[in-house]
């Protein structure tokens, strides 16, 4: 006779309905893989009367997700509400304290309160799983926690926000401005209610903080992520960098350096020959540089009903199978409180300058760079019909401190007034 595992689901948006659909459609498959009968007992959301495209009458209704989390007749609490505080945090905490296993897709909750919730779940001997919180349908959490558990992770690099990747690739393909494609993405529903979460890099930073903890065995440190979004990327940047063999991607990068843990989210250049450069639309990709297995590349849909719901279901199955893995890969007491480093490793950089169109202007700039030990790998100057000339260049490998010192001296040349555009060239493979 099959053991019955009872589930409560809080949050009936896109992902919540996707979870219910998968359980209904694949129930026999799940039962065969777990030797257990899966039963959705109760659900919760803001509105009971809202039409969600499927019948929910067979499930008991709880208007308060915290009450749902405390029910004696559920074994696994699924939190799909979202948000770092409020009902999401309250209900997850209540579920853990009530001895319930928790599955969540809430990256903000984990990024901000991950350490506390890891402690709490371990103390109460329950699982807290979150495969769906990072990169949607890509099994990155399981890979880091299990498949690569015997490897040292050297570096994590990823495109982990599909909305930003959509905007950047559409700008390139359609020869359209950031503003035009931003409006298009908004119309298509690709952006959060607060678009700043996407285009400002915050969503990526939440995910990167979680990935850093998993990869390097450290306490989740979202405040330690350096964040820069794509709002200031122009069509000319995309064209100029393409002309020199690069594409612009919003990258999350995490690595343990001699100076500490470096965590950055920023627009970077990647070689057109790299795997990340081929990534189009809303797809996500994470590149793991490992000590024993080399580079591991994981690619898939980073959002959407089915991919995200699929990851939620995978976590439910793991819990049923009694696959006990600590929240961040090891007991919280062994998680290191890493020093955060704001220093980047030396790298090439892209510069876009608007120079006064007069003799000797370029020579003054290159001299300033040379005086600071910076040499130029490649450079382009483009046709123009105004008083300033656009010049773009890729430097040889240099330190960010030397580059910033040179840029601080640019105004002394008398040929530049606008702020330069600076983008790091990231070695991704």
Topology:
Blueprint (H helix, E strand, L loop, with lengths): L2 E8 L3 H12 L1 H8 L1 E9 L15 E2 L3 H6 L5 E4 L6 H12 L3 E4 L2 H17 L4 E2 L10 H8 L5 E7 L2 H13 L3 H10 L8 H4 L2 H15 L9 E2 L7 H9 L2 E12 L2 E12 L11 E8 L3 E8 L3 H16 L28 E8 L4 H11 L4 E6 L6 E8 L4 H10 L11 E5 L4
Parallel strand pairs: 1-2, 1-4, 2-3, 4-5, 5-6, 8-10, 10-16
Antiparallel strand pairs: 7-9, 7-11, 9-10, 11-12, 13-15, 13-16, 14-15
List keywords for this structure.
429 residues; elongated; alpha/beta; Rossmann fold; Alpha-Beta Plaits; six-stranded parallel beta sheet; 3 domains; Dihydrodipicolinate Reductase, domain 2; 35% helix; 14 helices; ten-stranded mixed beta sheet; single chain
Quick structural summary:
The chain has 429 residues and is α/β, with parallel strands linked by helices.
Explain the overall architecture:
By secondary structure, this protein is an alpha/beta fold. It folds into 3 domains: 3-133, Rossmann fold, CATH 3.40.50; 140-302, Dihydrodipicolinate Reductase, domain 2; 349-425, ACT domain (Alpha-Beta Plaits, 2-Layer Sandwich). The chain contains 14 helices and 16 strands. The strands form 2 sheets. Strands 7, 8, 9, 10, 11, 12, 13, 14, 15 and 16 form a 10-stranded mixed sheet that branches. The protein has a 6-stranded parallel sheet with strand order 3-2-1-4-5-6, sandwiched between helices. The chain starts with a strand and ends with a strand. The relative contact order is 0.13.
């Amino acid at each position: 006779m099959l053991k019955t595992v009872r589930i409560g689901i809080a949050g009936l948006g896109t992902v919540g309905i996707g979870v219910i659909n998968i359980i209904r459609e694949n129930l026999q498959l799940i039962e065969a893989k777990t030797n257990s009968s899966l039963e959705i007992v109760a659900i919760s959301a803001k509105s009971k009367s809202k039409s969600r495209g499927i019948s929910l009458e067979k499930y008991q209704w709880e208007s308060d997700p915290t009450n749902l989390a405390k029910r004696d007749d559920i074994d696994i609490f699924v939190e799909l509400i979202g948000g770092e505080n409020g009902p999401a945090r309250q209900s997850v905490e209540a579920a853990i304290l009530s001895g319930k296993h928790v599955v969540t897709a809430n990256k903000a909750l984990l990024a901000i309160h991950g350490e506390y919730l890891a402690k709490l779940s371990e103390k109460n001997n329950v699982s807290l799983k979150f495969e769906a919180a990072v990169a949607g349908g890509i099994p990155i959490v399981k890979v880091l926690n299990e498949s690569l558990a015997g490897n040292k992770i050297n570096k994590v690099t990823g495109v982990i926000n599909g909305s930003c990747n959509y905007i950047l690739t559409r700008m390139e393909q359609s020869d359209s401005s950031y503003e035009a494609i931003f409006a298009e993405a908004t119309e298509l529903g690709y952006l959060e209610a607060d678009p700043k979460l996407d285009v400002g890099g915050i969503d990526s930073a939440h995910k990167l903080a979680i990935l850093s903890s998993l990869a390097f065995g450290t306490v989740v440190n979202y405040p330690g992520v350096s964040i820069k979004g794509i709002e200031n990327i122009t069509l000319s940047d995309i064209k100029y960098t393409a002309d020199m063999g690069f594409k612009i991607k919003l990258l999350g990068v995490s690595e343990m350096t001699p100076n500490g843990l470096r965590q950055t989210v920023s627009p970077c250049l990647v070689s057109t020959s790299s795997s990340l450069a081929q990534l189009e639309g809303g797809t996500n990709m994470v590149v793991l540089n490992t000590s024993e297995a080399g580079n591991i590349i994981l690619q898939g849909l980073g959002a959407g009903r089915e991919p995200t719901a699929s990851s939620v279901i995978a976590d439910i199955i793991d819990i049923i199978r009694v696959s006990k893995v600590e929240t961040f890969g090891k007991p919280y007491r062994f998680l290191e409180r890493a020093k955060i480093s704001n220093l980047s490793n030396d790298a090439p950089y892209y510069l876009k300058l608007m120079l006064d169109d007069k003799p000797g202007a370029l020579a003054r700039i290159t001299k300033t760079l040379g005086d600071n030990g910076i040499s130029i790998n490649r450079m382009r100057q483009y046709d123009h019909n105004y008083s300033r000339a656009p010049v773009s260049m890729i430097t040889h490998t240099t330190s960010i401190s030397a580059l910033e010192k040179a840029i601080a001296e640019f105004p002394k040349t008398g040929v530049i007034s606008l702020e330069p555009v600076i983008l790091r060239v990231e070695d991704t493979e």
